[in-house]
Amino acid sequence: MRNNRSFFFAIAAVLVVILGGLGAYLALRPQYPNTHTTTIFVHGYASSYHAEEQMANYLTSHGASNSVVRADVSENGHVKLVGKIKHHAKNPIVEMNYNAHNPQRDMKHYDQWLVNVVRVAQRQSGYNRINLVGHSMGSLLAVQYVNRHAHDQNLPRLNHLVVLAGGLFPQFKQQMAGNINKQTVKNLRVLNVYSDKAHGTDTRVPNKYSRALRPVFDSAKEYKQVELHGLTHSQIHESTQVDRILINFLFAR
């Protein structure tokens, strides 16, 4: 009997230590608020939603979100959500998944597809605020969205714009950023993350194009530019360093 009691006491002591440690961990872990905002990830050329998964998983595993769905976009622009945004979801995430393999497709097609995803996400989540996180060509679409649609009162308000491995390219400068209204971006927070892998480039995008975004958003509520080192173009969306920067920018307020 004594041995049994000793055993149970030992088990109880172990549980107390474990639960105490868990409680301390949870107390120290950052608590991210529910901003009632949908974050939409936009992947790059010749890519897919898989490029967005690590970032989305990081946000959910660290308590910033509890709902992730995929938005499949067909060739005619029809959007089908794979999964369902939870009722009263905490900062839901939408992984945009579109066919970007056709180099002859006009950027207007991609632009309309993004608008379609925004509308579908708004209907299902019920939230009237969004964040856009774009990688590579996806960031071009996100900047273009600011130019063409951020002022549209029939669409959700854009709170945060995140540009990953993107920039202001000479061939898109006039059509994408030349007409951005300063009033449109005055309440917008912008994060621009790029990497110098070697000789002023991430192996695809010259850093000078990335840095060229600063004057475009000089009237934004916040503009944060982060230059990393050693990451290639694709590694930027696979880096936990970028994940940490992203979660703090979007939700640690």
Q: What does the model show?
A:
The protein is an alpha/beta fold and 253 residues long. The protein contains seven helices and eight strands, in the order αβαβββαβαβαβαβα. It has an eight-stranded mixed β-sheet, sandwiched between helices. Strand 2 and strand 3 form a beta hairpin. Helix 2 (50-61) packs across helix 7 (240-251).
Task: Describe the structure in brief.
The protein has 253 residues and is of the alpha/beta class. It has seven helices and eight strands, in the order αβαβββαβαβαβαβα. 37% of the residues lie in helices and 20% in strands.
Low-confidence stretches: none
H-E order:
HEHEEEHEHEHEHEH
Instruction: Give, in spatial order, the strands making up the sheet with the most strands.
Output: 3-2-4-1-5-6-7-8
Number of helices: 7
Structural class: alpha/beta
What is the count of β-strands? 8
Overall geometry comes to: globular
Report how far apart the termini are: 56 Å
Mean pLDDT: 88
Which range best describes the helical content: under 10%, 10-25%, 25-40%, 40-55%, 55-70% or over 70%? 25-40%
Which value, in Å, is the CA radius of gyration?
21 Å
Percent in strands: 15-25%
Largest sheet: 8 strands, mixed
